[in-house]
Amino acid sequence: MFGVLKDYVVFRPTWKKHNLRQEGDYVNIRAVIDFETTGLSPGMGARPTEIAIVLVDSGTIIDRYQSLMNPGVPIPYDIQRLTGITDKMVKAAPSVESVMREAEEFVDQHPLVAHNAAFDRKFWDTELHRIHRQHHQGFICSMLLARRIFPEAPNHKLGTLVQSLGLPATGRFHRALADAEATAYLLLRIESELMHRFHLSAVSHELLLSIQKAHRSKLASCVRQYQGL
Fold it and tell me: β-strands 8-11, 30-37: how paired?
């Protein structure tokens, strides 16, 4: 559901995690995450301006979380133009710390996925450290996976993959929810391709971690090794 406060918009989750635990489906969920930020590196003082998390389970998007947040620093003009997120929009938003507490609770212990995960992981780890929390899940990078599974793509930017693979349009790129949803659809396409190509009944988080570390020429042998063949 959406809540609106002047220029601040948040997309709250609608599901209850305890129900998923009771149904036994909790362990199959992956959390696809995307940040928009004031810069490229938290080590250089950049802070998040928006986060979105999309939960995927058994080939379906089951829930979403999205929020702008007040970074406490000005957003450079070139980034305002890129993302459309302005200083005025984040002025009424909650602090990064309060949003990160909600986001960490929403993710819980689900495996994490991001496109160009090295970028998002830096901000996820840094901002969790600020609130004295940490995660222990391995990060899946859909860009690394796409390079190995779709090497023929013109490039492996998210927008290019959405277009070349015919994935659903999710909205303006460089906004967190649109990018997280696009990455979720890419993840589902990657899983479907692996299941079809290698006759798999399912694709585990551990297999994806192995594939993203392997050379693209070793994809088949990586899958066979996982299967114990």
Answer: unpaired
